[in-house]
Amino acid sequence: MKILTANRLSDGEAVWYAADGTWAETIDRAETVADKLGESRLEAIGKAAYDNDEVVDVNLIDVVVTDGIIRPTRLREVIRAAGPTNRTDLGKQARASARHA
Amino acid sequence: MYRYDEFDHDFVQARVAEFSDQVERRLAGEITEDQFKPLRLMNGVYLQLHAYMLRVAIPYGTLNSKQLRMLGHIARKYDKGYGHFTTRQNIQYNWPALSDMPAILADLASVEMHAIQTSGNCIRNVTADHFAGAAADEVADPRPYAEILRQWSSVHPEFSYLPRKFKIAVTGAKRDRAAIQVHDIGLHLKKDETGALGFAVYVGGGQGRTPIIAKKIRDFLPEEHLLSYITAIMRVYNLHGRRDNKYKARIKILVHETGVEEFTRQVDAEWAHLKDGELALPEADIRAISTYFAPPALVARPEGDEALRLARLDSRSFGEWLDQNVVTHKHPDYAAVTISLKGVGEAPGDASDSQMEAVADLAERYGFDEIRVSHEQNLILPHVARADLRAVYDALVEIGLQTANSNLITDIIACPGLDYCALANARSISVAQEITHRFNSLERQRDIGELKLKISGCINACGHHHVGHIGILGVEKKGAELYQVTLGGSGDENTSVGEIIGRGFGPEDITDAVETIVETYLRVRLDSSEIFLDAYRRVGQAPFKEALYGSEAKAA
Lengths: 101, 556
Hints:
heterodimer, A: alpha+beta, 5-stranded antiparallel β-sheet, globular, B: alpha+beta, Sulfite Reductase Hemoprotein, domain 2, Sulfite Reductase Hemoprotein, domain 1, 19 helices
């Protein structure tokens, strides 16, 4: 499975392309695709968003989906989706724990 | 310290205005990312994993309290309450928004700071001995020359598009605390037999994927020839350095492939045209710059010895800090203090906004308004009266910066690694954290003695692992982190590149491996005066291999 990720131009925030056509700030809303056709569609969306100056550093990344939870295969992308492992008070993970508090 | 003149102010203000305009046009979609990227890099703005990163220049690691307070202010207002001090004596912010860059740069300019040439294929921040101007073993303060190089290299029209980035370091002492032999150019300021000042010039050192120790191409370059000779080196590099392959583009590869003799010949031929021209430094100009770095008026404070004797009796932890983090000053009543940014479980080099402000207060009150950033990612108060050391220590306790581990195994250099960096393959900070927890006992650390441990999260070697007595390099293997260990590296006047000891270790095993190496050292050392590096150089890899890999090592 693959998802589309990038960083938002204005503030650099890591974002993922969601099924509702927006760039989500958390990976759980990312749209997953399972075939070449889907990948090509996401790539085209990414290129358009890049050309439109919404996002930079656009990439399709590999993920596995288990029980509905999206997890990137590379540690780099796991950390990108959560935040620095030495500072769990920062990044996306901090918002998640704040929500659950 | 150096103060901007009118030209400097105008230059930095003009750059702030220019880059602010470029940011605005980028945000408005008037310029593309491809057009903008080289512009943002020239102004220290990177894109990392979680956000943009801004690298701010701290020339030769010297700051005053006003500047450090501003760095704290920026951390609080535009970032997430902290900054990361780097091995180039700079500071990085990990979370600034692109839209805030104009405001941040304006704030920096208000205290004579900027982010120019902290990235890109140009001459980067010139680094210097962090004890410059204070060290008892120093021949002369190297910072005036670093400042001359800064002025000369700033937006130098000929050297702004080099084959690759270019790093210069200067030391004024025989004991090299600036790692000059792993720089593109390393300068050792010294005196000849007549007492005149000049430099031993080293060229072509560097770390990264191809670690090479610099070669000394001139034993004594009189100070007035500094700029002409370095220009000659830069011209040879700019002309012949490879531009076809990024990994072979540093001057170290050129020197290596050309051969030292031929390279030196080319430099000398170029220098012959330049030597007596406009780049010759007038004596008056050198002395004028030097006056900015005149030592503070250090009044006699002889009461320090008795005060310290009593304070030692009063507090064991103060005594330990004194032994570990305080070094001899030129003036017998004063000392240079290392403020460790390597507390147990902390990210090496990170300091919070309030810690920066508190250190600025200490510098103002006790340290003649001066702070240094060391390439080992600590802060330094270079001039503190011995009589005031207890007060400084007590204040550091208040802000959690009293860790007494300078030069010990937990005084780790670590790059940001995969927790922040877009280039990294593995984490560095987490490894540093675990090692500091494992070697938490100061008694044990002091028994181990001087041991420089350095960690990089990728082959680019920002964490200086090649010159760590113990070096750790994180790589990615089959999607997981793997840590390769090198032993015997050193970045001082006897520079050596560490040797790979054997196969790597997973994240769960790397701290055990370090402990095994340390225990082996304790077993083989002649006595406690033989530090790890000396013991390794004496006994070689064998006992360490055996301890780490057992019979497998014997078979190999």
